[in-house]
């Protein structure tokens, strides 16, 4: 325990470190007016798309403009329809900490060519991500801070020590830079990009966390936005802790939905003939993993990782078969059998073994404060368990932010009339529907397009809903929002061909 105590003491000391003060009257002109060198991109996919790339210089700390700077990687595909050019269209694919340099890869198959050709399509890696100054790995013993606290107090104590260790490993090598990898600073970077491009306003497509970034931008830079589309939405008033807690009920509903589907296919998966039987089997599997981690390719899937696998695969009802095969495999392995391990489970295990999502946590922790008392999280977990037996311990688990220095700025309060189109599925488990309702209320001029009775994260997809696609494309084309909120449905599933 002495090692764990040392970690907690070290992190506590770092959390009391002071922050830089703003430079009064500092001039941003040298950043907004910089000349950048547009050159051939290093990525073959961007070259094929006809993109050019550049690096835009921004201050690390916007309160200290003469201090250190960093480079933001930007891509540009110039508008092909010069006569009807609408302006610039930026995007963010979510995460946080997902690379957004290839914007065409995100939106090229959902925005009609006739519409997209009117925009300069601008991609960028947010600060701290990929080619925009990604910090070195912290050396985490696990890949992802989104984990379950487990089934009992002993599991929660182990998670608390682990999450403290994760925070400390990031802050001991550099206690300063990670604190500036925030959404507010990324929004400022976006506005520098806008200035460098010579655009009076930006249009924008944000997915998941990217909706929060877009909403923050509208609040920080009023009058500088044009056509803003938000897909699978974060409520700024719930970010980050509240949104995480909102996962619990949404994930339990998603698990019930999947369990019902799986029970209908019991002849294939043999996981239970009724939804309650399937659910009971999953809960029992988690209890087994708590006692004895399930060996998968030399890696132990335990009570902390298994709920994350469920959370990941419940994001899309089209993954029902994948999740059923994954649970079937885990049940067989837990029972001592040697089944063929499906590739999706191997991918989950490989990610848990090799990836590190520390930059994602740096952004969360720098954006909004989270409770520092571990007992707060344990009480929240126990209060939610009766109605969330599988996901209470994931949605309320402690994370590195509990051991992080206080944010340098308060969270952005979003409350404005910037026009926006909000797209949201009712069954989304990553950004639950209540989040979209919250943002809709905070953006008084927005319209909410609901994809009804669909469990999916990211609704602007080819072939999913013509209603959603048509509405988004009309807005990007004409700049006219629907007169009122709209309910859309998924396209009918094509009927099986009738045998001749």
Largest sheet: 10 strands, mixed
Topology, number of strands: 12
Low-confidence stretches: 1-26, 496-500
Average pLDDT for all residues: 94
The best one-word shape is globular
Please report the number of helical segments. Answer: 19
* Spatial strand sequence of the major β-sheet: 1-2-3-5-4-6-7-10-11-12
Q: State the helicity in percent bands.
A: 40-55%
% residues in beta strands: 5-15%
Structural class by secondary-structure content: alpha/beta
Q: What gyration radius follows from the Cα positions, in whole Å?
A: 23 Å
End-to-end C-alpha gap: 72 Å
Oligomeric state of the chains? Answer: single chain
In short:
The protein is an alpha/beta fold. It has 19 helices and 12 strands.
SSE layout:
Blueprint: H1 2-15, H2 29-32, E1 39-40, H3 44-48, E2 52-59, E3 69-77, E4 87-92, H4 103-107, H5 113-116, E5 119-124, H6 153-171, H7 183-196, E6 202-207, H8 209-220, E7 225-231, H9 241-264, H10 266-269, H11 275-291, E8 294-296, E9 299-301, H12 306-313, H13 320-334, H14 343-354, H15 358-367, H16 374-384, H17 392-395, E10 420-425, H18 433-442, E11 446-451, H19 466-478, E12 486-488
Parallel strand pairs: 4-5, 4-6, 6-7, 7-10, 10-11, 11-12
Antiparallel strand pairs: 1-2, 2-3, 3-5, 8-9
Helix pairs in contact: 1-6, 7-8, 9-11, 11-13
Description:
- Helices cover 41% and strands 13% of the residues.
- It is globular, with a radius of gyration of 23 Å.
- It has helices at 2-15, 29-32, 44-48, 103-107, 113-116, 153-171, 183-196, 209-220, 241-264, 266-269, 275-291, 306-313, 320-334, 343-354, 358-367, 374-384, 392-395, 433-442, 466-478; strands spanning 39-40, 52-59, 69-77, 87-92, 119-124, 202-207, 225-231, 294-296, 299-301, 420-425, 446-451, 486-488.
- The protein has a ten-stranded mixed sheet with strand order 1-2-3-5-4-6-7-10-11-12, with helices on both faces. Strands 8-9 form a two-stranded antiparallel sheet.
- Strand 10 (420-425), helix 18 (433-442) and strand 11 form a beta-alpha-beta unit.
- Helix 1 crosses helix 6, helix 7 (183-196) packs across helix 8 (209-220) and helix 11 (275-291) packs across helix 13.
- With 500 residues, the chain is an alpha/beta fold.
- It contains 19 helices and twelve strands.
- It has a domain at 153-172 and 244-403.
């Amino acid at each position: 325990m002495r090692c764990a105590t040392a970690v907690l003491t070290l992190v506590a000391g770092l959390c009391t470190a002071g922050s830089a003060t703003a430079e009064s009257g500092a001039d941003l002109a040298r950043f907004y007016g910089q000349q950048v060198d547009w050159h051939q991109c290093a990525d073959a996919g961007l070259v094929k798309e006809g993109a050019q790339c550049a690096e835009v210089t921004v201050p690390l700390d916007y309160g200290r403009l003469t201090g250190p700077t960093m480079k933001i990687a930007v891509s540009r595909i110039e508008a092909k329809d010069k006569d009807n050019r609408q302006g610039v269209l930026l995007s963010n694919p979510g995460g946080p900490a997902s690379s957004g340099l290839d914007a065409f890869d995100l939106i090229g198959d959902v925005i009609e060519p006739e519409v997209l050709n009117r925009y300069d399509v601008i991609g960028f890696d947010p600060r701290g991500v990929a080619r925009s100054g990604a910090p070195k790995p912290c050396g985490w013993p696990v890949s992802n801070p989104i984990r379950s606290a487990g089934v009992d107090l002993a599991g929660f104590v182990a998670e608390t020590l682990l999450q403290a260790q994760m925070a400390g490993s990031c802050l001991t090598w550099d206690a300063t830079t990670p604190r500036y990898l925030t959404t507010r600073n990324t929004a400022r970077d976006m506005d520098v990009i806008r200035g460098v491009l010579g655009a009076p306003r930006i249009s924008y497509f944000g997915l998941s966390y990217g909706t929060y970034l877009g909403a923050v931008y509208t609040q920080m830079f009023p009058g500088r936005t044009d056509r803003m589309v938000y897909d699978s939405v974060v409520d700024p008033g719930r970010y980050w802790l509240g949104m995480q807690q909102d996962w619990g009920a949404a994930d339990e509903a998603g698990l019930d939905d999947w369990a019902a589907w799986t029970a209908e296919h019991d002849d294939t998966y043999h996981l239970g003939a009724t939804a309650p039987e399937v659910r009971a089997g999953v809960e029992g599997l988690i209890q087994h993993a708590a006692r004895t981690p399930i060996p998968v390719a030399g890696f132990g899937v335990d009570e902390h990782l298994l709920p994350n696998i469920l959370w990941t695969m419940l994001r899309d009802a089209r993954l029902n078969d994948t999740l059923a095969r994954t649970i079937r495999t885990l049940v067989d392995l837990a029972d001592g059998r040697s089944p063929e391990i499906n590739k999706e489970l191997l991918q989950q295990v490989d990610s848990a073994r090799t990836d590190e999502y520390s930059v994602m946590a740096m952004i969360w922790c720098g954006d909004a404060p989270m409770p520092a008392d571990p007992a707060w999280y344990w009480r929240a977990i126990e209060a939610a368990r009766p109605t969330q037996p599988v996901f209470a311990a994931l949605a309320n688990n402690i994370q590195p932010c509990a051991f992080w220095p206080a944010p340098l700025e308060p969270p952005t309060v979003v409350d404005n009339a910037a026009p926006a189109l909000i797209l949201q599925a009712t069954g989304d488990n990553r950004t639950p529907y209540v989040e979209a309702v919250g943002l809709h209320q905070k953006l008084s001029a927005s319209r909410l397009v609901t994809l009804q009775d669909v469990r999916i994260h990211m609704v602007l997809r080819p072939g999913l809903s013509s209603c959603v696609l048509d509405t988004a494309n009309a807005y990007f084309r004409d700049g006219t929002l629907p007169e009122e909120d709209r309910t859309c449905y998924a396209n009918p599933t094509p009927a099986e061909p009738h045998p001749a």
